[in-house]
Amino acid sequence: MSGPLLRAPVLRLAEAGWFRRLATGPLGWRVASRFVAGETLDDAIRVAKSLDGRGIATILDHLGEHVTAPEHVAEAVAAYLRALDRVRLEPFLDIQLSVKLTQLGLDFSHELTVANMERLLRAAEEAGTIVMIDMESSGYVDRTLRVFRELRERHERVGVALQAYLRRTPGDVDALPPASIVRMVKGAYLEPPEVAYPTRREVDAWFARLTATLLSRGHTVHVATHDEALLRGAIAYVERRGLPWTRVELQMLYGIRRDLQLSLAEQGYPVRVYVPYGAEWYPYLTRRLAERPANMWFFMSNLIRIGR
Ligand SMILES: Cc1cc2nc3c(=O)[nH]c(=O)nc-3n(C[C@H](O)[C@H](O)[C@H](O)COP(=O)(O)OP(=O)(O)OC[C@H]3O[C@@H](n4cnc5c(N)ncnc54)[C@H](O)[C@@H]3O)c2cc1C
Questions:
Q1: Is the domain of 295 the same as that of 148?
Q2: For the chain, which terminal residue's Cβ has fewer other Cβ atoms within 10 angstroms, N or C?
Q3: Based on the domain organization, do 167 and 289 belong to the same domain?
Q4: d(Cα 278, Cα 244) in Å, to the nearest integer?
Q5: Number of domains in the chain
């Protein structure tokens, strides 16, 4: 992570109209395609098959967030149902699904979001997979966890992401239903210091502490980071305590630390890669650029070079 200090200017630049126009054109896509499988479900399945050939499982994310019109919510639900149907038809591939609740109606109503998630969870049941809920910016955490807890009363195949950078997360861990499925991440959004720890040292320490707490309390944990020290720490914790690997996965993003993804899979650890696809890739790309100054530099120099 570049650290919150560098994240802010990159995310602000990404909001500027001129930058967005440049970055969402064909030139921008050439750089974005490092992090995004493509615009269609077929593109994503092609990537899932190639990962599967290397012993790596997939989590599919149909890109989109902050849907502002009800008809777009219906489109997002339909896209996820298509993805789940495809997962059902590919029983030899290990594919989970990840969703953002703002795509499924969270800005409109709790009830609409729960109803949409229920449809996805019924389809996930048929496909024999699970649906993970991404965690978005801090203003959505209460509403997201409320939806998760309600669904968890009726469904086993649902999990949620928690962010180590948020000061509130230890309390959210305490309030989890027993045997939850939790993805532990550092956190990708721009948050004020009252809400999120501002230094990498604090975020990393909380990531390790919360991962250990979740594991010791019997939750299933998806350790989602490219931070090799944290991944090795989680592996050592699981092995020292003799915890079953059926309760732990190591997860990374498509296009980031491919070397580490491969080497952990080759060592026999359960590795899953988060594969985003779809036309709405710009907000996702800006978060990946903001995580690392080198990415922004790579992006800008490519735009200049290709544009000449
Ligand atoms: C499977 C998965 C699901 C996620 N889901 C969510 C979610 O629901 N909500 C949420 O807020 N966040 C989510 N994230 C993003 C997460 O919060 C971090 O922003 C992201 O993982 C970068 O932090 P890091 O843990 O890799 O650690 P960092 O300290 O940022 O990075 C460690 C190392 O990884 C490499 N690296 C990290 N990021 C990049 C990059 N963009 N480009 C190139 N190299 C990089 C670098 O080598 C870096 O030194 C998810 C991440 C993963 C892996």
A1: no
A2: C
A3: no
A4: 35
A5: 2
Please indicate, yes or no, whether residues 126 and 207 belong to a single structural domain of this protein. yes
How far is 303 from 299, CA to CA, in rounded Å?
6
**Which atom of ligand 1 is nearest the CA belonging to 165?**
17
Ligand 1 neighbours (beta carbon < 6 A): 1, 134-135, 161, 163, 183, 185-189, 224-227, 251-253, 256-257, 274, 288, 291-292, 295
The end-to-end CA distance of the chain, in Å, is 31
Question: Half-sphere exposure of residue 174, counting CA atoms within 13 Å on the CB side?
Answer: 4
Overall pTM surpassing 0.85 (yes/no): yes
Asked if 241 and 305 sit in the same domain, the reply is: no
Is there a single domain that holds both residue 118 and residue 242?
yes
Q: Model confidence over 200-242: pLDDT tens digits?
A: 999 999 999 999 999 999 999 999 999 999 999 999 999 999 9
HSE-CB for 49 with a 13 A CA cutoff: 9
Quote the domain boundaries for residue 96: 38-278
Identify the three-state secondary structure at position 114.
helix
